[in-house]
Amino acid sequence: xxxxIINGGNKLxxxxxxxxxxNAVLPIMTATLIxxxxxxxxxxxxxxxxxxxxxxxxxxxxxxxxxxxxxLIDTKECNNPHAPYDLVKTMRASFYVLGPLLARFHxxxxxxxxxxxxxxxxxxxxIKALREMKVDIRLDKGDIIAKGQPQGNKIHFTKKSVxxxxxxxxxxxxxxxxxxxxxxxxxxxxxxxxxxxxxxxANIEGIGTEVLIISPIEIQxxxxxxxxxxxxxxxxxxxxxxxxxxxKIKLKNVNIEHLESVIDHLNKINIxxxxxxxxxxxxxxxxxxxxxxxxxxxxxxPTDLQAQWMAVMLKAKGNxxxxxxIYHDRFTHISELSRMGADISLKNNxxxxxxxxxxxxxxxxCTDIRASAGLIIAALCSKGETExxxxxxxxRGYDGIENKLTSIGANIRRIKS
Length: 417
Ligand code: EPZ
Prior knowledge:
Number of helices: 14
Strand order of the largest sheet: 22-23-1-24
Number of strands: 24
Distance between the termini: 5 Å
Bound molecules: ligand EPZ
Largest sheet: 4 strands, mixed
């Protein structure tokens, strides 16, 4: 397995081009199944997860080509509404095919996703909502067997869920009748999915709010282009990296509205941010006070930047608290950061961090996509040479991160296994 070797201590200077958003492109790729057609999707990052989704679309019968960050997807010949376990177990987002396959085929067999490094990842919201749409759902040897055309209904989620909102949105586009989703997720990736579904011909009211009203497609539009929005989590990762190391970088091709909470938190620790159209500059001397942070659904501070924020707080002046409200056990990075000399204690879903004067290199191991990014940030601002293993986690969600970091002055290299 590949490793990353990082020699910490360099400040970061230069420009970084932000890639398309992983969590926007994955549901949109499954949405191409809803109406048989030809779809051209631009600004698609080259990730393990997008390659896994390409594999899944091909198993279902799509013809997919990917080059120069553009996807060409032809779903006219799809004939196998099945997402097998050996794919779903590697990527939970495979579960997104459930809604589209039901919309098109009125049946689907999708393996139940397992948990992930930090714990269980249930799909009970998805199943409950589809049953309320009169879909017959049963579990058979680890597979969800779903049958029936979704019927429009009023769906309420007791807790905001990005995945469940996406699946029900897609199931509703060819349902019999209108569907209302209340307490819907408002993440930019869901807004972007709504825009794609509108292009397909669905009528969706309330986009960007927590109440969505979906009238099914009447006139199908099955051949169009679509641009993937910039990845706010990749952008936030670089913003937090330079905050920790010090320096000045400019991120190109971002959507500032998707980063307001991150910008607000950086400004609170006196990190300078300058907005310029679709670019944002961040400047830091690497010295800052600790402040508390809690993760929240959008527009709050994203859980996908929690580990990266923790890495920034390790050497901050003073002590702070991080409260993880989305996934109460998303802390596998703490044990690895502690190996580098971090002073962190955990009680339930709250991490208590005591700022230390220095953190040191140590062999550490990735456990999930975003924990890995936290380890990279810690290594970039630690003394000595850090070896990071199991970086296939990083490759799931970041397109060429070591090349982008090298281009702004980081001392980082990949050792191929
Ligand atoms: C999406 O996961 C993202 N993945 C995650 O990013 C992100 O962390 C998460 O949303 C929260 O923002 C993709 O978009 C591919 P949820 P998802 O359903 O949809 C609970 C990354 O690193 N829940 O919004 O799976 C759940 O346990 C990944 O890019 C249920 O209880 O997340 C969690 O506590 C990691 N039952 C909360 O809701 C359900 O049926 C939010 O989960 C569904 C969710």
